[in-house]
C-alpha cells in the first residue's frame, strides 16, 4: 500500500514542474510580443522616418601618387605637398547659397580671375542682377513659349545672347574675384571635394580659412600634391604627364576610369610611364562616408579608410649616367651645329643597355633649335629614341653577314671580290659600290672596312639571282621578306617590347620594282629603325644571340617614408624574347669582325680614343635626302630642291670579352660633307664609354648593394642562357 502511494506522488510531481516551465515561457513570450507591439505602434512611424531621412554616401579623397626612383634608389619623380582649399557641394545647395559662401571666401583669399570666361561672366551677371536679366525677355518671347514655339529653357539662352558688353562691364574687380571662386565651386560634383585653390596659398590664407570654416559651409582645407621632377628636364618626356584636378580624366577614357572607381576630376597619368603604370602609381584614396538626409543635407561624416600613397617604380636607369650622357649629346650638338656642313643637323639619340639583362641604363635624345635671339638651345627629346626611325646605314652589316652564313650562301672566312656592281643594261647605270674598291676580302675585312659590295653579293645570293655585270637581274619580293626575317631576329623592323607606349617598329620600304633596293636593304639604306632597335640588335650580338626585352622598370615597391626602400611587390626579371636561329660559331665570327672595326688597322672606328675599354661595334653612314622649297614657278607651284645629307650612326659594346654595356647612337642629317664618316657619332660613343666606366670606377670604392645584385643577376642570366 505504501509503495502504491509513493508511485502516485512521483507520477504527479513531474507534470507540475513542466507546467511551471511552460507558464514561465508563456509569460516571457507575452512580454516580448507586448514590447514589439508597443514599439511598432508608438515609435514605428518615428523609426521609419529616421530610416527614410538618412543616406550613406561614400566619397573618395585625394591620395599622393607613388614615387619614381632610379636603379640606385635616388628619387627622380616625387610629390610636392601644397596647401589647398576645397569646396564640397551638398545636394540641396543652390547657386545663391554658393555665391554667398564665395563672397565670404573672397574676403579671406586672393583668387585671380585668369580662368574666368565670357560665359562665366554672363551666368554671374544673370544670377546677381535678376531684375535686369528679366527685362531681356520680351512678351513676345513668353508668348512663343506659351504657343510651344520655344521651351522654357530657351529663354535663358536668349538672355545670354542679349547681354551687352556694357552690361558685362558692370562687373567690378571685387566681383571678378568672387566669380573666380564661384566658378570653381560649380565645377565640383555633389559631395565630391573640388579644389578651389592650390597654387600660392599663403600660410595666412590657410590659417584664416581654417579659423572660419564654421562660417563657410562646404569649404575645407587639405593637402594637395603636384609632381616634382627632381632632376629638372632630364627624361621628362619619358616620365610622361599627369592630368590636373581641372582637366581630370581624359575625355576619351572617362568610361574606363569611372568603371574602375575613379572620379571625373581625379588626376591620372596621361602619357608614357605615368600612364603605362597608372595602376601602380595611383594611390588608394581616403574614403569618407557622408551621412545625409533625403534632402541631401549633411548630418555627419565617418572616416572609412585613411588612404595610402601609390606604389613606387624603381627604374633600371642610372640617373647619374643619364645626366652625363645628356651633357655629352648637348655639348656635341652645340659644337657641331654651327658648322656649314651641319646646316640640317637638329637632333641626336643615345641608348645604353645592359646586353645581358636588357635593362636600359640611359635613354637620351636632344633637339637643337635657334631661339628668338638667334641663339642655339637644346631641348629634351628622349622619346625620339623609341619613336623616330631613320636609315641605320652600315650598322646592320653584322646581321647581313650572319644572314649569309646561316642561309649558306657564304661560309666563315670566304673571300668575295669587292668591285662595283652594275645592274641593268643601260650604259648610264650608276654603279653600286663601296667607298673604295677593296678587292678580294673575307667577312672579317668586310665588317672591319665596311664593304658594301660584300653585303650586295650576300643579298643577291639569298635572292637566288645570278649576277652578270650590265645584264638584267630580278629579285623576287620574297627576297626582301627573307632578309627582313633575319633582321627581325635581332629586333630590327619589329617592336622591341619596351615597357613604354607607342613604340615605333620602323618603316619598311614598299617599292620592289627596282632591283637595287634589295641591295640597299642589305646595307641599311632602305628600311628605317629606331635607336632602341639598334641597341637591342647590338646587344643580341654582344651576348651571344639572345634578344633581351628592353626594360625601364626593374621593380615595384610599396611606399616607404623612410630612407630605406619599401617592401618588394614585383621584380622584373630579365626576359629573353628569342634566341637567334644562328650558330654560336657564326655569331663569334661577327663578334670578331666588330672587334676589328675598333682595333683593326683600317677599321672604320679605329680613330676611337676609348680603346682602353675594349670596345667592339659597327659604325654606319646612311644617305638621307631632304626636300627643300627654294622658290615658286610662274604657275604658283613650289620649286623643290633635293639635298643629300648623311646620318652618322654607331653601335657597340664593351668590354668585348665580357660585355656589360651596349650602346646605339643615331645622329640624323648630321652632315652634307660626304668626305667625312663617323665624326660626331664616334665622339659621342667614346664619351659615353668614358662616362660609364668612369662611374663604375668611382663606385667600386664603395660598391652599392644594387650593383652587387646586378652582377649576380648577370651571372644568373648567363647560366640560364647557357642552359
Describe the structure.
- The protein has 723 residues and is an alpha+beta fold.
- The protein is 39% helix and 21% strand.
- Strands 2, 3, 4, 5, 8, 17 and 18 form a seven-stranded mixed β-sheet that branches.
- Strand 10 and strand 11 (376-380) form a beta hairpin.
- The longest helix has 51 residues, at 2-52.
- It is elongated and about 115 Å long.
- The chain starts with a helix and ends with a helix.
- The model is unreliable at 5-11 (pLDDT under 50).
Sheet with most strands: 7 strands, mixed
Shape: elongated
Distance between the termini: 103 Å
Number of strand segments: 22
Secondary-structure content class: alpha+beta
Mean pLDDT: 87
Radius of gyration of CA atoms, rounded to a whole number: 38 Å
Summarize the helices and strands and which ones pair or pack.
Elements: H1 2-52, E1 55-61, E2 68-69, E3 75-87, H2 95-106, H3 118-128, H4 130-135, H5 139-146, H6 152-162, H7 165-168, H8 173-187, E4 194-197, H9 203-211, E5 219-229, H10 236-239, H11 254-259, H12 272-276, H13 278-281, E6 286-292, E7 298-305, E8 312-315, H14 319-336, E9 347-353, E10 360-370, E11 376-380, H15 384-387, E12 389-390, H16 397-407, E13 416-418, E14 439-441, H17 443-449, H18 452-462, H19 477-488, H20 516-522, E15 529-530, H21 531-542, E16 546-548, E17 553-557, E18 568-571, E19 576-579, H22 584-599, E20 616-632, E21 638-654, E22 661-671, H23 680-700, H24 705-722
Parallel strand pairs: 2-8
Antiparallel strand pairs: 1-6, 2-3, 3-4, 3-5, 6-7, 8-17, 9-10, 9-22, 10-11, 12-15, 13-14, 16-19, 17-18, 20-21, 21-22
Helix pairs in contact: 2-8, 14-23, 16-18, 16-22, 17-22, 18-20
Amino acid at each position: 500500500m505504501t509503495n502504491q502511494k509513493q508511485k502516485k506522488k512521483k507520477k504527479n510531481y513531474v507534470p507540475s514542474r513542466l507546467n511551471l516551465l511552460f507558464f514561465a515561457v508563456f509569460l516571457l513570450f507575452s512580454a516580448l510580443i507586448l514590447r514589439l507591439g508597443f514599439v511598432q505602434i508608438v515609435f514605428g512611424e518615428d523609426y521609419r522616418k529616421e530610416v527614410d531621412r538618412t543616406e550613406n554616401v561614400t566619397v573618395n579623397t585625394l591620395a599622393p601618387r607613388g614615387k619614381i626612383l632610379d636603379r640606385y634608389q635616388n628619387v627622380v619623380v616625387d610629390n610636392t605637398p601644397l596647401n589647398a582649399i576645397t569646396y564640397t557641394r551638398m545636394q540641396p545647395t543652390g547657386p545663391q547659397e554658393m555665391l554667398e559662401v564665395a563672397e565670404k571666401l573672397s574676403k579671406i583669399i586672393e583668387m585671380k580671375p585668369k580662368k574666368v570666361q565670357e560665359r562665366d561672366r554672363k551666368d554671374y551677371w544673370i544670377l546677381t542682377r535678376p531684375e535686369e536679366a528679366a527685362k531681356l525677355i520680351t512678351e513676345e518671347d513668353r508668348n512663343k513659349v506659351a504657343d510651344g514655339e520655344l521651351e522654357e529653357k530657351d529663354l535663358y539662352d536668349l538672355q545670354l545672347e542679349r547681354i551687352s558688353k556694357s552690361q558685362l562691364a558692370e562687373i567690378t574687380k571685387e566681383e571678378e574675384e568672387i566669380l573666380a571662386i564661384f566658378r570653381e565651386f560649380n565645377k565640383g560634383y555633389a559631395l565630391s571635394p573640388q579644389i578651389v585653390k592650390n597654387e600660392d596659398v599663403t600660410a595666412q590664407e590657410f590659417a584664416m580659412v581654417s579659423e572660419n570654416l564654421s562660417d563657410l559651409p562646404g569649404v575645407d582645407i587639405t593637402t594637395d600634391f603636384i609632381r616634382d621632377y627632381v632632376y629638372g628636364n632630364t627624361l621628362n618626356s619619358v616620365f610622361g604627364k599627369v592630368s590636373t584636378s581641372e582637366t581630370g580624366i581624359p575625355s576619351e577614357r572617362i568610361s574606363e576610369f569611372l568603371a574602375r572607381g575613379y572620379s571625373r576630376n581625379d588626376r591620372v597619368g596621361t602619357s608614357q610611364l605615368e600612364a603605362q603604370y597608372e595602376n601602380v602609381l595611383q594611390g588608394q584614396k581616403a574614403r569618407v562616408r557622408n551621412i545625409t538626409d533625403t534632402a541631401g543635407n549633411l548630418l555627419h561624416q565617418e572616416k572609412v579608410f585613411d588612404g595610402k600613397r601609390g606604389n613606387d617604380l624603381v627604374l633600371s636607369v642610372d640617373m647619374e649616367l643619364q645626366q652625363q650622357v645628356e651633357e655629352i649629346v648637348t655639348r656635341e650638338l652645340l659644337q657641331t651645329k654651327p658648322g656649314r656642313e651641319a646646316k640640317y643637323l637638329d637632333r641626336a639619340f643615345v641608348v645604353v643597355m645592359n646586353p645581358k639583362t636588357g635593362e636600359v641604363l640611359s635613354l637620351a635624345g636632344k633637339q637643337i633649335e635657334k631661339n628668338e635671339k638667334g641663339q642655339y638651345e637644346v631641348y629634351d627629346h628622349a622619346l625620339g629614341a623609341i619613336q623616330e626611325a631613320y636609315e641605320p646605314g652600315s650598322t646592320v652589316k653584322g646581321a647581313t653577314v650572319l644572314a649569309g652564313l646561316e642561309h649558306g650562301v657564304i661560309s666563315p672566312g670566304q673571300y668575295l671580290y669587292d668591285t662595283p656592281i652594275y645592274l641593268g643594261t643601260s650604259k648610264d647605270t650608276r654603279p653600286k659600290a663601296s667607298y673604295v674598291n677593296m678587292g678580294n676580302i673575307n667577312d672579317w675585312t668586310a665588317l672591319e672596312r665596311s664593304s658594301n659590295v660584300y653585303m650586295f653579293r650576300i643579298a643577291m645570293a639569298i635572292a637566288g639571282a645570278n649576277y652578270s655585270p650590265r645584264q638584267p637581274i630580278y629579285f623576287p619580293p620574297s627576297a626582301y621578306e627573307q632578309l627582313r626575317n633575319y633582321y627581325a631576329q635581332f629586333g630590327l623592323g619589329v617592336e622591341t617590347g619596351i615597357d613604354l607606349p607607342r613604340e615605333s617598329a620602323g618603316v619598311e620600304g614598299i617599292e620592289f620594282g627596282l632591283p637595287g633596293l634589295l641591295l640597299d636593304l642589305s646595307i641599311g639604306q632602305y628600311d628605317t629603325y629606331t635607336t632602341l632597335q639598334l641597341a637591342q640588335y647590338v646587344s643580341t650580338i654582344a651576348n651571344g644571340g639572345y634578344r633581351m626585352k628592353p626594360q625601364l622598370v626593374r621593380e615595384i615597391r610599396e611606399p616607404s617614408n623612410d630612407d630605406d626602400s619599401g617592401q618588394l611587390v614585383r621584380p622584373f626579371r630579365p626576359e629573353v624574347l628569342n634566341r637567334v636561329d644562328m650558330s654560336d660559331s657564326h655569331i663569334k665570327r661577327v663578334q670578331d669582325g666588330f672587334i676589328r672595326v675598333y682595333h683593326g688597322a683600317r677599321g672604320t672606328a679605329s680613330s676611337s680614343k676609348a680603346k682602353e675599354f675594349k670596345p667592339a661595334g659597327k659604325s654606319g653612314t646612311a644617305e638621307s635626302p631632304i626636300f627643300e622649297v627654294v622658290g615658286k614657278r610662274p604657275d604658283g607651284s613650289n620649286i623643290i630642291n633635293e639635298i643629300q645629307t648623311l646620318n652618322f650612326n654607331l653601335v657597340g659594346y664593351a668590354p668585348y670579352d665580357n660585355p656589360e654595356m651596349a650602346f646605339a647612337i643615331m645622329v640624323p642629317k648630321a652632315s652634307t660633307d660626304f668626305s667625312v664618316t663617323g665624326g660626331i657619332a664616334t665622339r659621342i660613343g667614346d664619351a659615353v664609354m668614358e662616362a660609364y666606366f668612369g662611374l663604375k670606377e668611382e663606385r667600386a670604392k664603395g660598391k652599392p648593394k644594387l650593383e652587387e645584385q646586378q652582377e649576380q643577376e648577370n651571372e644568373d642570366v648567363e647560366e640560364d642562357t647557357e642552359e
